[in-house]
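Bug #2210: token dump truncated for non-specific serine/threonine protein kinase?
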Amino acid sequence: MKMGNFWVSLFCLISVLILALFSPISTAQLTPSETRILFQVQKLLEYPQALQGWTNWTNFCYLPHSPSLKIVCSNNRVTELSIVGNKTSPSQTPKPASANFAPSQQTLSRSFSSDSFFTVLTKLSSLRVVSLVSLGLWGPLPGKINRLKSLEVLNISSNFIYGEIPTSVSSMKSLKSLVLADNLLNGSVPDLKGLTFLQELNLGKNRLGPEFPSLGNSLVSIILRNNSLRSEIPSKITSFDQLQQLDISSNHFVGPIPASLFALPSIRFLNLAANQLTGGLSMNITCNAELEFVDVSRNLLIGKLPPCIGSKSVNRTVLYSWNCLSTAYMRYQHPYSFCQKEALAVKPPGRGKKEEKTTTKLGLVLGIIGAIVGIVVVVGLLVLIIIRRKIIRRSGNNMFDGSAVDKMSLRSSPRPNVETRRVPQTMRLQSIGLVPYRVFTLEEIEDATNNFDPSNSMGEGSQGKVYKGWLSDGSVVLVKCLKLKQKHISQSAIQNIEETLPKLRHRHLVSVLGHCIVTIQDHPNASATIFVVLEHISNGTLGEYVTDWRKKELLKWPQRMAITIGVARGVQFLHTGVAPGIFGNNMKINNILLDDSLSTKISNYNIPLPSKVGLERPLHGQDSGENGEKEDIYQLGIILLEVITGKLVKSPAELNEMKLGLERGIAESNFKNVVESNMHGSYAFQSLKTAVEIALTCLGKDQNRRPSIEDVLWNLQYAMQVQEGWTSSGNLSTQM
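Reproduced locally. Full output below:
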């Protein structure tokens, strides 16, 4: 019997070996040569943290994807290599002259050779995506980069690459995205109009110029900000029918703004700030209905703003300070003579004397008209203020709801019905950077949460239990469990949920990544469970940053402004970015999360559910329509006060005390005794005053007098604009 068992075992072993020998090799196993190249890349990059732990047994094609490393394989070859390091980018360090470039602690060592590195990299001939960010790469970008014939995405941002962009880039016909931002590149940009598939071009934060690059009209996004471009805006750009984003801010562009730029059929984002653009804008120009953001501030524009980016731009953010425009906010405009003088000093290249004379005359006429209109507006406003103050004195209203708030110089916009006020579709495009939305199976949800192990429980929110989970690619998520109960759950109700959840994706929300719906129809007590998979943000809450001394050092006034603007944009999306709007969103400072870049993420907002479907537990705070909107505005006001003062509101008495303190600060033109001490000396008084005023208005007892979210957002952005102008003028240590 023992001998028989021996021969049986031997036969089985031989069979296994034969199967192993003749079984096909996995297509995800790299060839030995490509494996050797990856080890060379690791060595040449001087063993960054993302590439540590590799051994001869590492199967690179099965390494879990992470924010710092992603390797994708196909047919035994690497097709995507994405590495993110932790080296400080040039924009955060003094920029040395490239000719005398000396490696520093933020770059790779002196022994690094960009030519050798890219020679090795191009041996991965099947690469379609290369992303090498913040790795301390330095030296010129070699022309041999075009050996990567299949390359579709090239991202070498936030390094120290200097010299000119090689002309060989023009021959990389498969390129769809070219990102060389935040380096030390200089000189002219090569002719890229032959790259017919190129959709994204980001060359921001370099020293490129002086001419606007020659580009093809298939581009969707063009970012050239913070360079040395000195030319007119080319007229050809007005034929870019697919262009959604154009950012040429902080350059030296001169001449007029092409009127048709605002009406491009796909344009969503337009930033022309901090240039030397001159002349007036025609009052008859039209704007794309979905143009969401316009910034023409810090130029030399005269006259008035056209209606489509002025008084009628309700759902559009428009920044226009520090020009010579005739607006209601004349304090933040230069006098007309300033723009006339500066315009003469920055004549557009190649323009004849006759054309200059005509432009000057036109500018003078527009300036005179603008000045007259401005005087009339100012006089009219003074009369209205005098009349209004008399009425207020007679009325004797509540301190916060009447006299104090009415004196505040806040911007107000038309107030359409809550359900009909809808923002442009582009607001929903602010989910760029998120993984694609997907529908999960129950098995995947169970695997992610380890069968809902209690150790993975993150507590219970207003709508159900929340678990921490890990997807198969290693990414961390949250899984919210919503249990619905009803005798007969209709198909239309489930369909409505499935259509709504994928819309809850925005840069200032803890966004929905996917869902799974499990229904039990045959059971007498029919029920359904919705598992909502959400982003996991692990950098702490806004409340922690406001109160923890180790973190609050990061939050100077500009950072606090950026954070509150992010909160307002998130609320705006919830109110108007989906239909019907989502209200009663439990707006508390500890439900505001901050990611690694201190960008705002609103968590614990209401997941919209069919009104006829009963939850097994009540939804606390869920409301709809005008009441829910005004409650969110009130809670947003509390968050603004907490961010400004650095103190958390723990009771109504504390809230009233904080409001009184800020009221006194406005009256005495001194906020030192009431704002966060860490901010002293770092803010413009008018900027802080505007933020305080809108916060107090949000907290009005009469909810009908509380501002709309659009008004809140406009005033916060205006306060940020004032702060930026104050800072750029050199006021870094004293209050205004």
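Output looks complete on our side. The domain at 425-728 is CATH 1.10.510.10 (Transferase(Phosphotransferase); domain 1). Marking as cannot-reproduce; reopen if the truncation happens again.
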